[in-house]
Design goal:
Layout: E1 14-22, H1 29-38, E2 43-51, H2 67-78, E3 86-91, H3 100-113, E4 118-121, E5 126-127, E6 130-131, H4 135-145, E7 151-152, H5 156-163, H6 170-180, E8 184-187, E9 197-204, E10 207-214, H7 223-236, H8 241-261, H9 273-277, E11 284-288
Parallel strand pairs: 1-2, 1-3, 3-4, 4-7, 7-8
Antiparallel strand pairs: 5-6, 8-9, 9-10, 10-11
Helix pairs in contact: 1-7, 2-3, 5-6, 7-8
Length: 297
């Protein structure tokens, strides 16, 4: 990643975070903003929808801003005099398909203002074979946002949705990640090589790297949101991809392990923020075969 413009408030660039907001819990922008600010990055937070809690906890009221008002707010940010402070944009869960176009315009404005800015797209579309966004939104993310993305962080199911492929092993994941297009693809649910494990697969810089750890059953929500935010922070801080993958995976795993040990039904980021900075958890790093003859190799 190229060097970004620093914020006037410090030596780290501001990040625009666009995702859902929950009143209770640490998912969506609650996880993203807390993680980025804990790591020293000023954040411009843009909620796409407001919820009382993660829908996995049960039904709750959903408040989505009117599409015209959301677009006007985002266009205000695109024209803000502080835009040179922004070194990255991260997007997650969208409330409506119509939110995609104004967000794309904002990303384009950020990149025009700061050509070194990084865009991370977390395509929150579904999981475990269940699609929880409309097909039109899948298409809008694929056709409008992915071409702008420097980093994309899908789970296995989302990678299938975006590529139209099916996977049975990590070789298929790597090939699909290369075909997807963005410079870096971090698959947050790779096929484990360790019995009882899980891990993150990074395909970037002509390499495929797998970071594995023990699978924790019935994990709280928000792992994908947190992984994307911490990985982005590592990259903005100048870490190489392999080190960024290792330390981001270790931080999220450590927070997950501590949260579940407490019996918490949400990630306890407010208690374990130090794990974001200096994780002690061990993860198994492996280098996997990169497709031979790929046009980027």
């Amino acid at each position: 990643m190229t060097e970004t413009t620093s914020s006037a408030r410090g030596d780290k660039p501001a990040v625009i975070a666009i995702s859902s907001h929950v009143a209770r819990g640490t998912v969506g922008n609650r996880a993203v903003v807390l993680a980025l600010e804990s790591l020293g990055f000023p954040v411009w937070s843009v909620p796409t929808v407001m919820l009382p809690w993660h829908p996995g906890h049960g039904p709750g009221t959903r408040i989505a801003p009117a599409d015209g008002e959301f677009a006007a707010l985002v266009d205000d940010l695109a024209g803000a005099r502080w835009l040179p402070e922004v070194g990255a944009v991260i997007t997650g869960y969208f409330g409506t398909t119509e939110q995609i176009e104004p967000v794309a315009r904002l990303i384009e404005a950020v990149k025009r203002t700061n050509p070194g800015a990084v865009y991370l797209c977390d395509p929150i579309l579904g999981d475990g074979g269940r699609l929880y966004q409309p097909e039109a939104l899948v298409a809008a993310i694929r056709d409008r946002l992915l071409p702008l993305a420097d980093i994309v962080t899908p789970n296995r199911f989302e990678l299938e949705l975006l590529t139209g492929l099916e996977f049975s092993d990590n070789t298929h994941l790597i090939e699909a990640a290369v075909a997807l297009g963005p410079e870096s693809v971090l698959v947050t649910s790779a096929f484990p090589l360790l019995r009882g494990g899980t891990g993150n697969l990074l395909v970037a810089d002509y390499k495929a790297l797998l970071a594995e750890h023990r699978l924790i059953e019935r994990a709280p929500q928000g792992l994908g949101d947190l992984t994307g935010a911490v990985f982005l922070a590592r990259m903005l801080s100048g870490m190489a991809g392999e080190k960024a993958l290792q330390t981001a995976t270790a931080a999220v795993y450590e927070i997950l392990a501590r949260s579940t040990k407490r019996g918490a039904d949400e990630l306890t980021l407010e208690t374990d923020a130090e794990s974001l900075k200096h994780p002690m958890a061990m993860v198994q790093m492996r280098r996997l075969a990169y497709p031979s003859g790929d046009r980027r190799a």
